[in-house]
Amino acid sequence: MSTLMSEEVEERRHLTKIIAQVSRIGNYMLGRQFEREGLPISREQWDVLVMLWEKDGRAQQEFATFLLKNRASITSLIDNMEKNNLVTRVPNPNDKRSKLIYLTKKARDLKDKVIGIAEESILVITNDIPLDDVKKGVELLRKCLSNITEYEKNLSESK
């Protein structure tokens, strides 16, 4: 009886499957934690908030690039955040076609609470994993991301 995949490919498939599961379930867990605290913040909105807490007044394209989302998805994401009074759009003085996204007072005031919830979730997810192993995991996943990026770049160059 032949196997569909070699043992090596099967082990590598397990890695990619587990990466997807951890991402999906971790995102769900974080969203549920925000929900339990009565915070109108999704996992993707969390990423936007972190970016704005680091540097307020970013162009929407920066979020699209970081989150690997298209312009329509980012517009919808920002629309929802604006409805929840977390961000505001301001015309970009350097480019009349774009708007800059800024935090509202409400979002600035939520920073410590939201970061505390996220930190708790991260610690639950990585519980009992030595820091050295976490660092090796980050290195491994960066390599996977680099492989994907390089592969996609080569595909687009060959067209």
Automatic annotation (TrEMBL):
- Top-rank taxon: Bacteria
User: Signal sequence span per UniProt?
Assistant: none
Annotated HTH marR-type domain residues: 12-146
Any one Gene Ontology MF annotation carried by this entry is: DNA binding
Keyword Membrane part of the UniProt annotation: no
Q: How is this protein named in the record?
A: MarR family transcriptional regulator
- Tell me the keywords, alphabetical order: DNA-binding, Transcription, Transcription regulation
